[in-house]
């Protein structure tokens, strides 16, 4: 979500006459986009912004900043955007002395105006939105997007109304708002006309698209396939766009894994067979305390529905270890659920309290060393599981969207299959980034597949 917001701001600044530069050292303006979902992420963003303002002011507080201040800095303005701004409010200027402007997550579109005002001599400008404010410019994309121009993020849903007990996101990103389907379809159509092959639809809980507010209205053409649920109906509309090869979306909640969603997966080959389905815990007791609104059995029923439709369907998840009161038995239930679900990949987080959340009022009673142990156990389990699941694909031929030279070995290329698995292959020179190619898998690692092009 932050990558997409940053891209929209860069595009708006370009439209206002600014130019993108290749490196931070060459920049006259740097804006840090912050995350506050965990304390560490917020500290990192605040630390980085403080380093930049110290560099600009020439009075470094750290040795590193002092060295940087000695160099001729081109930096004129430093801004901060994103979730940490909303959480901290005006306090952000105390945390980061010398900060020129700050904009919360639903106010990023104000940044070109804030820059103008700062250049005219104003300072410490702050823009925060209400929980229901709808930002402008959600569909703005740069003519020359950074990164892969054949891939684009498209925000379809803002905010979150789930209010899980540990999560600060609803406080900083506000209430759910679904963009009108007509607007989303037009945006994706225009991206496809510019050569985008893959879009990733974004929302905190993307399957709730069109639930809180209507995304479709009576003047929209009826669904040719008879879809009545707003999100599958959106997939149907996007799948009819010429040139668009792949549609991804993230993140999901098991309640959204309906029969209509599975019908859309089955009917539209463009819809990638991968779902990021955060589980957080395998214990019903902890799921209840977390306020996740599903049980272990309900979650596993959603997994079964997807795997019954396609046994190779790729599932990834997020898990929290060490939630307040999580016992060894609760943890073992998480372990067994992960085994049963058979994830392709899992992101494991050690619980840390976020101020203002319901969970923050509970004693953070699982010792750090035990959180660390549980983290390591799950990661080791997942490595073995990933290897076994990927091993089953050796000998199969995967359709891979080529992304470019592999990060580890530039002589080989990297791409992803429909399940979002990384596939490494030799490129004889004929494959260009954005091409969809066939690769026969010869070897598997826990998170990567290796193979040869099939001519
Ligand atoms: S679904 Fe829960 S964890 Fe995800 S953003 Fe919403 S409140 Fe946070």
Q: Gap between N and C termini, in Å?
A: 37 Å
* Share of helical residues: 25-40%
Q: Beta-strand level of the residues, as a percent range?
A: 15-25%
Mean pLDDT: 94
- How many distinct helices? 14
CATH class category of the largest domain: Alpha Beta
- Which ions, cofactors or small ligands are bound in this entry? iron/sulfur cluster
How many discrete domains?
3
CATH architectural grouping of the largest domain: Alpha-Beta Horseshoe
pLDDT < 50 runs, ≥5 residues: none
E-strand count = 17
Q: Write the CATH fold name of the largest domain.
A: pyruvate-formate lyase- activating enzyme
Overall 3D shape: globular
CATH superfamily of the largest domain: tm_1862 like domain
Largest β-sheet summary: 5 strands, mixed, barrel
Strand adjacency order, main sheet: 13-14-15-17-16
- Overall structural class, as computed from helix and strand content, comes to alpha/beta
């Amino acid at each position: 979500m932050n990558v997409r917001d940053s891209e929209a701001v860069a595009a708006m600044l370009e439209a206002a006459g600014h130019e993108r530069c290749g490196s931070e050292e060459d920049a006259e303006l740097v804006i840090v986009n912050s995350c506050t979902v965990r304390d560490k992420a917020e500290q990192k963003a605040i630390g980085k912004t403080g380093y930049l303002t110290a560099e600009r002011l020439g009075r470094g507080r750290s040795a590193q900043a002092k060295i940087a201040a000695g160099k001729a800095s081109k930096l004129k303005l430093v801004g901060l955007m994103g979730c940490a701004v909303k959480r901290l409010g005006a306090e952000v200027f105390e945390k980061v002395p010398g900060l020129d402007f700050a904009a919360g997550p639903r106010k990023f579109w104000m940044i070109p105006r804030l820059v103008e005002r700062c250049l005219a001599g104003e300072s410490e400008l702050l823009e925060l939105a209400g929980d229901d404010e709808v930002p402008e410019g959600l569909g703005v994309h740069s003519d020359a997007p950074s990164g892969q121009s054949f891939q684009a993020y498209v925000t379809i849903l803002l905010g979150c109304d789930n209010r899980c007990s540990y999560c600060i996101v609803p406080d900083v990103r506000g209430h759910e708002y679904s963009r009108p389907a007509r607007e989303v379809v037009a945006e994706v159509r225009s991206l496809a006309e510019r050569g985008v092959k893959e879009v990733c639809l974004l929302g905190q809980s993307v399957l709730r698209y069109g639930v809180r507010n209507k995304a479709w209205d009576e003047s929209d053409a009826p669904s040719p396939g008879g879809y009545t649920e707003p999100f599958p109906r959106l997939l149907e509309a996007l799948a009819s766009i010429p040139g668009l090869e792949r549609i991804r979306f993230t993140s999901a909640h098991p309640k959204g894994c309906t029969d209509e969603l599975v019908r859309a997966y089955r009917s539209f080959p463009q819809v990638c067979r991968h779902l990021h389905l955060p589980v957080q815990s395998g214990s019903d007791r902890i799921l209840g305390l977390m306020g996740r609104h599903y049980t272990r059995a309900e979650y596993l029923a959603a997994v079964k529905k997807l795997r019954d439709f396609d046994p190779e369907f790729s599932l990834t998840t997020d898990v929290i270890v060490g939630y307040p009161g999580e016992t060894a038995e609760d943890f073992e239930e998480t372990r067994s659920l992960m085994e049963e679900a058979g994830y392709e990949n899992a992101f494991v987080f050690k619980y840390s309290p976020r101020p203002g959340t319901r969970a923050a009022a509970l004693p953070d009673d699982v010792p750090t060393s035990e959180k660390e142990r549980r983290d390591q156990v799950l990661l080791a389990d997942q490595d073995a599981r990933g290897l076994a699941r990927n091993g089953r694909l050796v000998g199969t031929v995967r359709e891979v969207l080529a992304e470019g030279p592999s990060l580890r070995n530039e002589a080989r290329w990297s791409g992803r299959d429909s399940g979002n698995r990384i596939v490494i292959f030799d490129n004889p020179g004929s494959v260009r980034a954005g091409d969809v190619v066939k690769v026969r898998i010869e070897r598997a690692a826990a998170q990567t597949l290796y193979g040869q092009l099939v001519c």
